Amino acid sequence: MGNEAQKYVEVEVQRQDDSNSNPYWEKFRVPYRPNMNVISVLMAIRENPVTTDGKQTTPIAWNMNCLEEVCGACSMVINGRPRQSCSALVDQLEQPLKLQPMSTFPVIRDLQIDRSRMFDSLKKVKAWVPIDGSYDLGEGPRIPERKREWAYELSKCMTCGVCLESCPNVNSHSDFIGPAPLSQVRLFNSHPTGAMNKDVRLNAIMGEGGLANCGNAQNCVAACPKGIPLTTSIAALNRATTVQMFRNFFGSDHMVD
Ligand code: SF4
Ligand code: FES
Q1: How far apart (Å, rounded) are the C-alpha atoms in residues 100 and 194?
Q2: Cβ contact 95:157 at 8 Å
Q3: How many CA atoms are closer than 13 Å to the CA of 196, on its beta-carbon side?
């Protein structure tokens, strides 16, 4: 039996040398192996950074961490769709693969982007449960199982940025915080201890860059790799902020129901 002909993966990568330089495209041809994901293609290019037309180039920069669609670090635009490169399988993709950095975030280099805008938004809305860790507080409050189940769904957010990338209202001209941080407000407001800061979180999203910037395009919920019900969260927050607005107006106390 003769040797099977070596198959190749054709790849086109949008590159950028630093945050201020202009993007340019390079083409690569990588030896195919069964079950390759986009990260393994990028690693093969890193081993041998030579373009299809034989030009020696620099290794491509990208972010990754968990390699199992949990950390959100490896998001990029693959064949026009924002998604995680660790779970993007070559066998399921049309070639040439077209890899681009997500456009909503500043490029650091090549496919590496700076997701600080999302983390800053999480700080702005206090997306955590405030506890004083200096002494043993004992067991936390009990949560009904049905509530725990849906809260768990919201807690799967990995700050990957895909929902911001797919939202037409998140861009460099807007300070809209986007769907993911909004949904986290709903998550932490639903927690019995987190609810102590419910009014602070709601007021934060009633201000600049908040809920009012949502144009209800519904792209986010279709794009989220974790299936988080983002538009349901946004609708719930619209109701909660309306109540909060009356509370603010009538000067009610800060007790949380
Ligand atoms: S809500 Fe979904 S798409 Fe948006 S950052 Fe979280 S995991 Fe990613
Ligand atoms: S490397 Fe963590 S989600 Fe892909």
Answers
A1: 38
A2: no
A3: 7
Proximal ligand: closest to the CA of 75: 2
* Nearest ligand by distance to the CA of 225: 1
Query: What span, in angstroms and rounded, lies between the C-alpha atoms of 80 and 143?
Result: 41
How far apart are the two ends of the chain, measured CA to CA in Å? 75
The answer for residues whose C-beta is within 8 angstroms of residue 93's C-beta and 6 or more apart is 38, 78, 79
> What is the C-alpha to C-alpha distance for residues 113 and 37, in angstroms, rounded to an integer?
20
- Residue whose Cα lies nearest atom 3 of ligand 2: it is 69
User: Is residue 32 within 8 Å of residue 6, measured between CB atoms?
Assistant: yes
> 164 vs 64, 115, 136, CA distance in Å?
19, 10, 38
Query: What are the pocket residues of ligand 1 if the criterion is a CB atom closer than 6 Å to any ligand atom?
Result: 72, 157-163, 179-180, 183, 223-224, 226, 228, 230
Token pair 């201020």: residue: 20
Q: Which conformational region is residue 209 in: left (phi greater than 0), alpha (psi within -120 to 50 degrees), or beta?
A: left
pTM: 0.92
Q: Phi first, then psi: what are they for 170, rounded to 5°?
A: -105, 115
257 residues of the chain, pLDDT tens digit each: 445 688 999 999 999 999 999 999 999 999 999 999 999 999 999 999 999 999 999 999 999 999 999 999 999 999 999 999 999 999 999 999 999 999 999 999 999 999 999 999 999 999 999 887 788 878 888 999 999 999 999 999 999 999 999 999 998 888 999 999 999 999 999 999 999 899 999 999 998 999 999 999 999 999 999 999 999 999 999 999 999 988 888 876 555 45
CA distance 253 to 250: 9
